[in-house]
Amino acid sequence: MAKKSKKQQQSGGTPATVALTAAGVTYTVHAYDHDPAHPSYGEEAAEAMGVSPERVFKTLVADVDGALTVAVVPVAGQLDLKALAAAVGGKRAAMADPALAERTTGYVRGGISPLGQRKRLRTVLDASASGHSTICVSAGRRGLEVELSPDDLARLTDAVLAPVGRA
Length: 167
Description:
Layout: H1 6-12, H2 15-23, E1 28-31, H3 41-49, E2 57-64, E3 67-74, E4 78-79, H4 81-87, E5 93-95, H5 98-105, E6 122-126, E7 135-141, E8 144-148, H6 150-157, E9 160-162, E10 165-166
């Protein structure tokens, strides 16, 4: 568990870890050396941490009927856009413009966290997360992941659990 003091939060915490600490949630931070040449941020994280890709989740921002929506799905698969739209009562979903996703969340692509976003977006967590005691998501920076219970993640992001990932 990585509990940080206020001084540590200010000096090296990300908005995601600050939010977790403020909420009193148990979590573990995993840092690794990010390789900009790696073709997949999520697969790189899984490999670097020695964690199964089914337990490492990527944060994707989509546009569902004109509203930005966060999807948190395993790095081992892909986002099912139709399922995402259905999960939030929408009709059509497409991946959001990366620059808009970065501006809205306050994070850079490859480091977008579902936690501590500049503007809180509705969030859908893939239902497979509930099959694990802990999952890893971006802590808000490339090369930094946070491990926490899927229940805590869902609670803190007001996430809907739905099968939005596919192999």
